[in-house]
Amino acid sequence: MPLTQSKDILHTHLKKYFGFDHFRSQQESIITSVLEKRDCLVIMPTGGGKSVCFQLPALIFEGVTLVISPLIALMKDQVDGLRANGIPSAFFNSSQSGEEQQDILDQVAKRELKLLYVAPESLAGLSPILNQSHISAIAVDEAHCISSWGHDFRPSYQQLGFLKKTLPQTPIIALTATADKATRQDIVNQLNIPSAQQFLASFDRKNIALEVRAAHDRVSKILRFIEQRPNESGIIYCLSRKSTENLVGKLKNSGIKAAAYHAGLNFDNRNKVQEDFIFDKTQIVCATVAFGMGIDKSNVRWVIHYNMPKNIEGYYQEIGRSGRDGLPARALLFHSYADVIQLRKFAEGAANEEVQIAKLERMKQFSEAPTCRRKILLSYFGEFLQEDCGNCDVCKNPPQFFNGTVIAQKILSTIARLKESEPTGTVIDVLRGAQNASILDKNYHQLSTFGIGKDISWNDWQHYVIQIINQGYCEIAFHKNNTLRLTSFSKAVLFGKTEVRLSKPVDKETKAAVEKEQRAKPIGTNSLFERLRKLRFQISLEENIPAYLVFNDATLKELEAERPTTEEDFMQINGVGQRKLEVYGDQFIQEIKDFQAEKTKKKQRKSHTFNDTYELYKAGKSIEEIAKIRKLKSTTIFSHLAKLYTDGKEVDIFQFVDRAAINQVAKAKKELESPDGLKPYFEFFEEKMEYSTIRLALSVIEKENMA
């Protein structure tokens, strides 16, 4: 087949079956290599389009493409997604009867399937079709599972090396979202594809905002976070089963639809939690790391880590489960030294203990970083980011440094007077002069440093202690009940020979930040996006498939922006393929038309009500008289006049508002950074300026800015 012709087929299939007009970075090169029967190793971030790299070639190959997937529970979801796109697919696993499995083998023999998903444990059942005439290609998904260097090693994956020996001419494509150099080498060695062409895509998920907060009071912070996102799906990762259950209880008490997912649940319960989440019946899942691998749910808008992950690979893969559709997403990590201590204990005695501890240290450094977090994250995977990202908490709130030598001396002096025998919490209690039983029983209240730090909060002291540890002026003796010890560098600080630079605590929960978040309005219940979302949900219930398999959020956003009302225009939307146009096009186009018609009617009614006010104003009626005639509040009439003035109507606005008030409002607008609504202004002026005055002043400011 000529190169130009094959490229045409690739682009035609991309639009017809997947709904996209263009390939993402490296996809076309990977697909071409697979079609040329070359082995490939693909490292591409979650949401980067790995699946298309083997699904599209499968449409062109004559036989079936075998997909090795680690989780039986996800195979149905993946196959449903392919079938929704018109691609004949099936899965083969132990949950099926012998008759069902034989039927699948028959379909493969008759070349009726293009993709067949199978777990490593079920490969033996495919022996009748494991030959060159039936299998065109093999995709090993979540390939990091094969390596003991990887963060999610699974022994069952280590048998996969036989595939290349059995089918030497069949291309193998190994895919994963996260793998460092050691893991990548281990993958190709164990799969017997040492000459595989390696494709390493950028790890930069720009749409995910990164943030780390101190772990104190995290439950209330999580509740506030969720309350501002009432319709958004999210995942909260916890370190233990107990934490997931406790947190779910607190979320449910606040009226939030949440469920726990962990290894302690039986298969049916885990499957139900996962299915309810995929089908948007459960908003939030609180889970251990067992949850999320392979889930293609594209509308997860945020991921929270209740506890610190044990390594950067795991963290990166878990946050990558949000924002797969490319729309803005958030990753919030709560960090505490208690997590570090717990994770160190988990690593003790492991065969690769040193590797685990080293990776944990890198994770800790990321959490405590005073510089752009995305730079650190990308550098871990060997990628250099020249400019700060501007989309992490450090970039948005750069730390302020000061001479913290005296604070450091107080900490080190207290450690010395405690004879290096107490952990961080006790050191801080002594500094703050705590009167608890532990302090009094040990007579620590008699130490000379007792209470010398009363003026600094407990959390701020913790912030400073962590920095002192990170700079090497003291250390945690993990093998001695996590006691704080002095180091060889401590003496220089204690005797004033070394200046210690510390950063001020960044209060990410300041009153201004909280108020701004509280003012953030969720998507309107009658916005076009929300109406399309409800239509999508209704269709998903009728067809018994996850809502995002109808269309993902990014497609709905584009439909909201473009508002296509013909099949030709509808087909131009990303995510709309030929089959989805045929199956869903009429319903979505009609919903858009209905919305447009209702909006036009509403606009006409609104224009009519403004004109009625204007006619009465031109007739010389006072505000009170217009309000009485129109049976409206005077504040509403002022609002009408402000809008009429902005629109260029002849309204003597200065009859109702003076220049001094306008200047005050202009100043408030600048200080409040152009807030939404009038309430922030009302509160700014301590409720001493009327809403109507604020509204009129803003209309003058708006018109003057337009001039």
From TrEMBL:
Keywords: ATP-binding, DNA damage, DNA recombination, DNA repair, DNA-binding, Helicase, Hydrolase, Isomerase, Metal-binding, Nucleotide-binding, Zinc. Its EC number is 5.6.2.4. SUPFAM superfamilies: HRDC-like, P-loop containing nucleoside triphosphate hydrolases, Winged helix' DNA-binding domain. Residues 218-366 form the Helicase C-terminal domain. SMART domains: DEXDc, HELICc, HRDC, RQC. It comes from the Bacteria. Residues 522-602 form the HRDC domain. GO terms for molecular function: helicase activity. InterPro entries: DEAD/DEAH_box_helicase_dom (IPR011545), DNA_helicase_ATP-dep_RecQ (IPR004589), DNA_helicase_ATP-dep_RecQ_bac (IPR006293), Helicase_ATP-bd (IPR014001), Helicase_C-like (IPR001650), Helicase_HTH (IPR029491), HRDC-like_sf (IPR010997), HRDC_dom (IPR002121). The keyword Oxidoreductase does not apply. It is an enzyme of class 5 (isomerase). Its cofactor is Zn(2+); Mg(2+). Residues 31-197 form the Helicase ATP-binding domain. PROSITE patterns: HELICASE_ATP_BIND_1, HELICASE_CTER, HRDC. Pfam families: DEAD (PF00270), Helicase_C (PF00271), HRDC (PF00570), HTH_40 (PF14493), RecQ_Zn_bind (PF16124), RQC (PF09382). Belongs to the helicase family. RecQ subfamily. NCBIfam families: recQ, recQ_fam. This is DNA helicase RecQ. It comes from Arenibacter antarcticus. The gene is recQ.
